[in-house]
Fold this sequence. Notes:
The chain is of the alpha/beta class. It is about 30% helix and about 20% strand. It has a six-stranded mixed beta sheet, with helices on both faces. Strand 9 (about 260-265), helix 9 (about 270-280) and strand 10 form a beta-alpha-beta unit.
Amino acid sequence: MLEDRATAASSPTAWPTVYPEGYAVVDVETTGLARDDRIISAAVYRLDARGEVEDHWYTLVNPERDPGPVWIHGLTSEALEGAPLFTDIAEEFSSRLDGRVLVAHNAVFDWQMIAREYARAEREAPVRQRLCTIALSKELGLPLPNHKLESLAAHFGVVQQRAHHALDDARVLAEAFRPSLRAAAAGSVRLPLQECRPLTEWRDTTTPRIGQQAGGGGFGGGSGGYSYRPTSWRPSRKRPACPYPNPGRYEEGKRLKQGMRVAFSGDTSIERDLLEDRAIEAGLHVATSLSRLTSLLVTNDPDAGTSKVVKARQFGTPVIDEAAFGQLLRDVEPASQR
């Protein structure tokens, strides 16, 4: 059993030659989840080919705006006032990532936040592949109650000291990733690597708002406040076609299945690109329109009169909200084998 190997965490003598030569285990804390949010702290643990720690690095980052949910990450405006801007740490951050696979828990989120910061700085992060530890734990069949970081840590006996602190989260993930990597190598498991394509376009879409920021004052108690510019992003990529056949409509109480066609309507608390990327990585087909072939519509406002909601009613397409969809994404049924 792969989970037995993972628990034992023994290093195999024959290491797969196709495995990467090094990893950068990353965690970033942010002002929020939207595309206009900023990184406020970052940590990187560099690991060698077999998951052994080489060194680690941590920095605060001045987001030039309100720090967001302080009750989660604990970083106030006062704590961030003297921190470097992302442009100041971009080169050092790059040196930590260069030539390595980016490893993170829910890696698509960390990667998108990092890619946006580099785009703002008119640079590109030197990352070509990422590995999500959620996806790896699924590949290994680890008997986890859920896919939270604390559950993965508890499985390997890793003690977390400061949740939502970038340096401690990165340490915990690095310690849990090492036995996961060794278990994968022992079982000749193909690592679930994903391509990282940088964002190459960024532009301001509104007039800068000068002075105090939404949700609180600017750094420094009012004088010398920073401007915050909402931005517009366009990824330099085209999503690949879903490789699985459409198994039909989603049935309440059952699991999603790879190949299902999912459409989104209305605003979401997590940015739409992130939700769509998570769905695609789970093996779902993200549809831009709704038809009789659509398996499921995700909307937080089922009473809205949008064209997708209206068509869903006409076609009898199942409708669920974003929170329920997020829960279903944790355990998507594999496509039927032919």
